[in-house]
Amino acid sequence: MYTLIDYSLDNELALIGLGRAPVNALGLTLRQELQAAFRQASADPAVKAMVVYGRGLPFCAGADIAEFGGAAFDAPALPQLLIELAGSAKPMVAAVGGLALGGGLELAMACGYRISEPKARLGMPEITLGLLPGAGGTQRLPRLIGAETALETILSGQPLRAERALELGLVDRLTASAETLLDEACAFARELVLAGAPAQPSAPHAAPGADLPANFFVDYTARKSGQWKGQVAPHLALEAVRIACEQPLEIGLAREEELFKEAMDSPQSKALRHLFFAEREAGKVPGIDASLPLRPIRKVAVIGAGTMGGGIAMNFANIGMPVVLLEQKREALDRGLAQIRKNYEISAKRGKLTQEQVEQRMALLAGTLDYADLADADLVIEAVFESMEVKRQVFATLDEVCKPGAILATNTSTLDVDQIAAFTRRPQDVIGLHFFSPANVMRLLEVVRGKETALDVLATALKLGKQIGKLPVVSGVCYGFIGNRMLEPYAREAHRLLLEGATPAQIDRVLTDLGLNMGVLSMYDLVGIDVGYLIRTPLREVLARDPSYYRLADELYALGRYGQKTGRGMYIYEGRERQDDPEVLAMAERLAAELGIQRREISDQEIHDRCLFMLINEGLQILDEGIALRAGDIDLVWTCGYGFPTWLGGPLHYAEHLGLERVLNSIRQYREQLGAYGELWLQPAPLLERLVAVGKTRISKD
Ligand code: 3H9
């Protein structure tokens, strides 16, 4: 009768085992069967209590995200099902193993009693999907753990450890171990039966708003609105919790459902759900499956103990892997190791690490000046100066000293990985691992597949990337790979717009208003105008076709105005404050005159369209060339590595939202309007033209 549920009786207990692999997402069939099992147990006079658990699986990861916009509310919809369960006449115990997230935690809360194994995580991650808890979470959580803590839990989206859940009263008990969970849950249920306990105990915070200061929600919104930027879901979630504080449960539940539907139908939630599935897809590469043997990685070497090399090394020490750090000079090595220790000490001060963990991690890091110490490394990552000549020396040496089968990786951000691979006699073992700065913090990892990179090398790199907590995205070889290649035309338009009459502050404001963490010109000031100059080096031949291209940035470079670190770049800096630099504005005017560029008033719309659409256009070109495997990969790179707002879903999802035809028409219009410059640079990507020609609204390569 059941396909996803294991229903069994244990004397006076009904055991309801949820068995929908992999994570018990509450899709329609599971909801139907859970309802049927609940009704069966309710109707059976021999049953005195029920235990709900995950049968060999995590308890429950929530509603089935793939159903949103489809069968999410087909009967029994989760909110109604949980209202039915919460009205049970018999005590129900949720046995939480692994995780109870979102609708999974709501299911656990609808059961009157909860017991958890000590390693479980419980939380409300809906906000990360542009949603709010929609099956009682915003109403039951405040009544269980208090309004303020509930609000923080819902708005952070971060799961709680089981111990913390116990402290807060979210669970009633912890078990000795995961293995004893079901037994202890049954014992708990029997105790409840014996004690004649009510099916729903009274809520510890029956009036959750009672202790809140006056104007709590208004003040809270005022404090957070900067952080929430243009996001809708936090406001809706807050509203739902406010109602929980002011209205009876039934009214709150009904209102929550409406607010949830509003969030679910919003473009922002669609965008965030797109990224959720894109992230799951990103690890999948044609030709790679679980049967492919991976290369064992037990020891890593990093060349270069600068900021980048040090950050990369920390990732491996963090997972208990020994790392050798190689430098040319003793002082540089000592400085690098001292910086790593400093970073760990900061984490310890913030309570994120114990002192013992700091020492354990430092003990895994060994410094050397001698390439011979790299002989037993399974993976070597080079993080030295961005120069092909320097890379040649490093890789030729690695070819001599490294053991056969060792993976040789370069952290280059723009150079040709195939050319680097050709410096060795084993190009099949060479790959790009492009970390983003700070490498111990940023989640994005571009895994650059050379034309000869072996499949098992790629698969090993992807697996290892996940192990160190990164989001690995595969890119083919081209200038700048996915991220920096797209940055180029986006930044080019910003720089050109300066000559045409926009100011740095105007350009950056348009971008931050859209939700980007930082405008592109501020970003260059932060990264360093000298760094920008350096990474343009491989492009000089192409750049020479257009005299306006980066003239301003090149002049700033020549003046030693490298950005924030020198106090002057596109802006003048006073500490962290910045303002437009009159000299930069004058320079832009002079250059425009020299280059015969007509200056004019530039609208915000034009800044948006030219910067964003050229970014999108390059993304489409990258997809067409097969540099990126799928549109979602491109969106991940930009949301995870370049501060593109997640609630817009990444540049290509944003293009779909705006309409591909609009993007194409706008590029064509500026191409015409901008004369020779437009003709040179504003060339619509053939894929964009093809998609629009056949009336497609979604981006895919074919
Ligand atoms: C919600 O509950 C709303 C309610 O309040 C109200 C409703 C009315 N649905 O990440 P993994 C799939 S909103 C569908 O690689 P891990 C995932 O796509 C929901 N599918 O594994 C993947 O599929 P595939 C609130 C889901 O071990 C596979 O499971 N809940 C769901 O690294 C393995 O996933 C959340 O936001 C789902 N809910 O991480 C939790 N969850 O193999 C979202 C997973 O085909 N999920 N899948 O690629 C997660 O955070 C992680 O997936 C989890 C496992 C921590 C569970």
| Percent of residues in helices | 40-55%
β-strand percent reads 5-15%
Q: What is the distance, rounded to the nearest whole angstrom, between the alpha carbons of the first and last residues?
A: 43 Å
**Mean pLDDT across every amino acid position:** 96
Integer tally of domains: 3
- Give the CATH H-level superfamily of the largest domain: 2-enoyl-CoA Hydratase, Chain A, domain 1
Structural class call reads alpha/beta
CATH fold name of the largest domain: 2-enoyl-CoA Hydratase, Chain A, domain 1
- What is the strand arrangement across the widest sheet? 12-11-10-13-14-15-16-17
Largest sheet data: 8 strands, mixed
- Count of individual helical segments: 30
Subcellular location: Peroxisome
Keywords: Fatty acid metabolism, Isomerase, Lipid degradation, Lipid metabolism, Lyase, Multifunctional enzyme, NAD, Oxidoreductase, Peroxisome
Pathway: Lipid metabolism; fatty acid beta-oxidation
Protein name: 3-hydroxyacyl-CoA dehydrogenase
